[in-house]
Amino acid sequence: MTSALVPLLLALGDDELVLGHRHSEWTGWAPHIEEDVAFSSIAQDEIGHAAAYYALASKHLDRTPDEIAFGRSPGEYRNALVCERPNGDWAFTLARHWFYDHAEELRLGSLEGSSDPALAGLATKMRREERYHLLHADMWLKRLAHGPMEGRSKLVEALGNAYADALALFDDIEGEDQALKEGLMTTSSAELRARYQTSITEHLDSVGLSIDAAPHDAEFVASSSGDLIETGENGTSSSRPESSGGRDGVHTKDFDELWEVMTLRYREDPKATW
């Protein structure tokens, strides 16, 4: 077993599982039926991707994919905090969706060159599927950026609130130096983060939007007009553990509540099948 492979797979799988669960919470509650279907489908894809990562990890652990997904304590999850944040309003959900899927495009593109054939193949397959998520996210970004001022303002505020957490998708993963040495990862998280910041800035510029690169605990973020907007409830610093983006297993109280719901059925009957 390559010691650095399992932490990498768990971090990737945990991002997908937790965000997929959050997306699934829109089922029956999205603003209109088309988005009800769309977010349900995206959630299903993300959870399916998590299952695929866990299946690879289970080959190196004495645990089944279900045990890995639902049989760990909250502190054993390595997802980035952006994935666990409550959905809040539609604007925050869309901002997170957009940030996450642009991050996925870069991350999966890099993993296609992994020295682990199974991981490389999985990254190629997922990247094809994630392309539709990216198209959906970009569609909404353009729609709100070019729409009425109220929607545009809410989007800008949401982008500012989600930005720092989104950057933490590229925090170092446990054992990253070894993973890079062995070729499991072809690009460091720091380099991917730099590329990501350049990419999202270019995309936002193309639709006339900008976000402030201020730290997450800033009281205000800049709107596209240059005015300062006080940060809202979604993603405010009060709920973020100090010096943690989630990769170290330190999570928010919101994750504890999500974990209780997400793992309830497994904890009641670990041998249950569907």
Can you describe this structure in just a few lines?
This protein is mainly alpha-helical and 274 residues long.
Structure description:
There is one protein chain. With 274 residues, this protein is mostly helical. It has a single domain, classed as Ferritin (Up-down Bundle). Helix content is 60%, strand content 2%. It contains eleven helices and two strands. Strands 1-2 form a two-stranded antiparallel ribbon. Strand 1 and strand 2 form a beta hairpin. The protein is globular. It starts with a helix and ends in a 6-residue tail after the last helix. About 11% of the residues have low confidence.
CATH architecture: Up-down Bundle
Structural class comes to: mainly alpha
What summary fits the major beta sheet?
2 strands, antiparallel
Strand percentage lies at: under 5%
- Tell me the Rg in angstroms: 18 Å
How many domains in all?
Answer: 1
What is the CATH third-level topology name? Ferritin
The number of distinct helices, counting runs of at least 4 residues, comes to: 11
N- and C-termini, Cα separation: 31 Å
Task: Give the rounded overall mean pLDDT.
Answer: 88
**In the CATH hierarchy, what is the superfamily?**
Ferritin, core subunit, four-helix bundle
* SSE topology string: HHHHHHHHHEEHH
Ranges with pLDDT <50 over ≥5 residues? 213-243
How would the global form be characterised?
A: globular
The CATH class, by name, is: Mainly Alpha
Tally of DSSP β-strands: 2
Q: Within the largest sheet, what's the order of strands?
A: 1-2
Range of helix content:
55-70%
